[in-house]
């Protein structure tokens, strides 16, 4: 996961959920946080930390000095998101490492299975792969109390990577159209692995998935996944790739 989120997707997803908001925000009293909220913040914290690490690595692979500088700034923004979550967990009396710990295996497995082989694959991974998970987190955020929801959406906000990735990938395709097929296959693999790891988290963390327990029926659940896949389709189109 990372902060490379299309800002329009944030608005669309949160407005579209129409989900009820918790009446009693767990953030109100330090030390009384809902376990589900702690799980979500821990998951996001580790996601932002790994996003920082991967963008810093991507900066080293950058073909130009301008790209290196741009990705370095985005990596710094991702770390700032991580620190914002750390501050909130600390305010709640929750140990940061303990909150992140349960999600290290699943996210590590995802990143190990989807290690990009080159610069373009790294851009597609950050823009397409990570955002599948981020869309799901935004759906969950729609069921949080306002203060918690605002924090989650703020750390999922675009750091500038969306436009950066689209511009570079489209330019590469224009120069060499053959790469489009390879990148489209790569994106499909990313989505499959992301969904697999999301299921793993759902099985292991009842409190976290319980945030969606209030969904009324199968039609509403289907609506959630339809919105996620629609956002994915828009990103693929923006890149000039077939979904």
UniProtKB/TrEMBL annotation:
InterPro entries: Ferritin-like (IPR012347), Ferritin-like_SF (IPR009078), Ferritin_actino (IPR059125). Pfam families: MiaE_2. Gene3D superfamilies: 1.20.1260.10. Residues 36-214 form the Ferritin-like domain. It comes from the Bacteria. This is Ferritin-like domain-containing protein. It comes from Parafrankia soli.
């Amino acid at each position: 996961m990372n902060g490379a989120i299309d800002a329009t997707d944030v608005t669309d997803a949160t407005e579209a959920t129409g989900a009820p908001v918790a009446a009693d925000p767990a953030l109100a009293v330090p030390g009384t946080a809902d376990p589900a909220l702690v799980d979500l913040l821990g998951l996001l914290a580790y996601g932002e930390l790994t996003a920082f690490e991967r963008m810093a690595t991507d900066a080293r692979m950058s073909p130009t000095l301008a790209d290196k500088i741009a990705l370095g700034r985005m990596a710094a923004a991702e770390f700032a998101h991580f620190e914002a979550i750390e501050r909130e967990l600390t305010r709640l009396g929750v140990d940061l490492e303990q909150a992140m710990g349960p999600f290290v295996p699943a996210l590590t497995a995802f990143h190990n299975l989807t290690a990009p082989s080159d610069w373009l694959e790294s851009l597609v991974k950050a823009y397409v792969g990570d955002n599948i998970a981020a869309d799901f987190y935004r759906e969950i955020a729609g069921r949080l109390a306002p203060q918690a929801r605002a924090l989650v959406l703020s750390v999922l906000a675009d750091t500038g990577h969306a436009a950066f990735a689209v511009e570079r990938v489209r330019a590469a395709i224009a120069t060499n159209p053959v790469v489009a097929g390879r990148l489209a296959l790569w994106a499909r693999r990313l989505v499959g692995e992301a969904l697999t790891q999301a299921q793993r988290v759902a099985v292991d963390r009842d409190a976290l998935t319980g945030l969606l327990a209030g969904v009324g029926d199968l039609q509403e659940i289907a609506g959630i996944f339809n919105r996620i896949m629609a956002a994915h389709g828009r990103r693929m189109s923006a890149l000039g790739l077939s979904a």
